[in-house]
Amino acid sequence: MLARTAENLFWLARYMERAEYVARLIQVAQRLTGTTASNGDANEWHSAIVAAGCEEGFVARHGEEVTPEAAIDYLVRDPDNNSSILSCFETARRNSRSVRTALTADMWDAINTTWLEVREFDVEALLRAENLTRFLEWTKERAGLFNGAYANSMLRNDAFYFTRLGTFIERADNTARILDVKYHVLLPQEAKVGGVIDYYQWASILRAVSALRAYRWVYPGRMHPWQVAELLILRPELPRSLLFCFEQITANLDLIGQGHGRPTEAQRLAGQMYAKLRYARIDDIFQEGLHEFLTEFIDSTIVLGQEVGKQYLA
Question: How many CA atoms lie within 13 A of 202 on its CB side?
Answer without folding.
Answer: 22
